[in-house]
Write a structure and sequence with these properties.
108 residues; 8-stranded antiparallel sheet; 1 helix; 5% helix
């Protein structure tokens, strides 16, 4: 029996598979650079946290922040602080969080 026009639904993925699909463009490289992230919390207070990159790609990065994570959707200022006289800063948006108590991460 055909329902809703789907003759062969085997090609359809379940919601878990769709959520886990890879969205990144290009390869990611496992590199650990010291970083500083600045953002404003829901009350407008500036938050500054230091951490490390976990991996870096052309269009994003995964960072480890040991104390506080920004909210998903937040705009953050990310500064790579490896060389004090040659810092690199970008504005990024938080797209996903890993709230693992032992190793909290934010995907930008």
């Amino acid at each position: 029996m055909i329902r809703h026009g789907f003759a062969n639904a085997k090609h359809l993925k379940n919601p878990e598979e769709i959520a886990m699909q890879e969205r990144r463009q290009g390869p990611r490289y496992s590199v650990s650079f010291p970083i500083r992230m600045r953002w404003k919390d829901e009350n407008g207070n500036e938050i500054v946290e230091e951490g490390l990159t976990e991996n870096v790609g052309l269009t994003g990065t995964l960072v480890y922040l040991p104390r506080k994570l920004p909210d998903v959707g937040s705009k953050v200022n990310l500064t790579v602080t490896e060389h004090a006289n040659d810092e690199v800063s970008v504005i990024a948006q938080v797209i996903r969080l890993e709230r693992n108590a032992a190793h909290p991460q934010a995907a930008l």
